[in-house]
Design brief:
With 173 residues, the protein is an alpha+beta fold. Helices cover 25% and strands 23% of the residues. The protein is built from four helices and six strands, in the order ββαααββαββ. Strand 5 and strand 6 form a beta hairpin. The longest helix has 17 residues. The two termini are 34 Å apart. The relative contact order is 0.16. The N terminus is likely disordered.
């Protein structure tokens, strides 16, 4: 298979405080924080992803030999396992994911579910196959707090030639 060259794999995102001295304050009085995200340039990522069968590429992400998609790094999602028609992600939401209620935004969970569904289907695809979500429904059962690890498991239920049915479930750890 094809492997990313040393140094090609994207760095993870991380939250940083203002370096040195007193933290800067916002107009509302809160300490200003920031998030640094680095990623592999997407044309290179797309080339690598399209050059090998889906499961091989995804296993490369798990093993750290292939770069993850930039959006995964942006939200802090990490592919931790891939099988034949299955994929598992983990994420520990940080302050940047908060909504107005002070919990992780529902869109973060929807993204994690979409990651798990898409990658579980991608694990069954030959090299060069492009997939896209055409419809998605989420039922939210409990809020996710900052620092609460979430694990999401996706599984292909039925894969046709043009449409697949996939389910995913999130568990708080």
């Amino acid at each position: 298979g094809v492997a990313a060259e040393k140094g090609d794999v994207a760095a993870r995102s991380h939250v940083v405080d203002d370096a040195g001295g007193e933290p800067r304050r916002s107009e509302l009085g809160g300490a200003l924080r920031g998030k640094v995200v680095t990623w592999e340039a997407s044309p290179r990522t797309s080339e690598l992803a399209g050059s090998v069968p889906g499961r091989e590429y995804l296993q490369g992400i798990v093993d750290g030999r292939m770069p993850p998609p930039p959006y995964a790094d942006l939200v802090g999602a990490r592919l931790i396992a891939v099988g034949e028609g299955t994929a598992t992600f983990e994420c520990t939401p940080d302050e940047a994911t908060l909504n107005i209620a002070g919990i992780a935004h529902g869109g973060l969970l929807a993204s994690l579910l979409d990651f798990a569904c898409g990658c579980s289907l991608h694990s069954l695809q030959p090299a060069g196959t492009v997939i896209a979500t055409v419809e998605m429904k989420c039922n939210y059962m409990a809020p996710i707090g900052v620092g609460q690890r979430v694990e999401v498991h996706g599984r292909v239920v039925r894969a046709g030639r043009k449409i697949a049915f996939i389910e995913a479930e999130a568990s708080m750890m």
